Amino acid sequence: MSLTVGEMIRRDEERRKLMARVQVDECLSCKRLMGEKHVATVPRPTMSELEDIMMDNINCYATDGCDVEQDGMCEHGHQSWMLKMGLT
Known about the structure:
It contains 3 helices and 2 strands, in the order H-H-E-E-H. By secondary structure, the protein is mainly α. It has one domain. Strands 1-2 form a two-stranded antiparallel sheet. The two termini are 25 Å apart.
């Protein structure tokens, strides 16, 4: 089955929404309960920091401050800032 670009984008958006939900009884970082959306506990990176991350291909940090890959999530389920902002 071949997907159109629009269908692929919709599926990706749905996957990101699900990934942003708490998968345990309570998130240790942001104190949200199962099924709720994670909330950022650290400030969003500056444009300069984002440029450094993209250009130097270095690790990013998640919305709770954990060190993660640019397109990854931490052990608590928080997305990287790059993923959350749709830059990967």
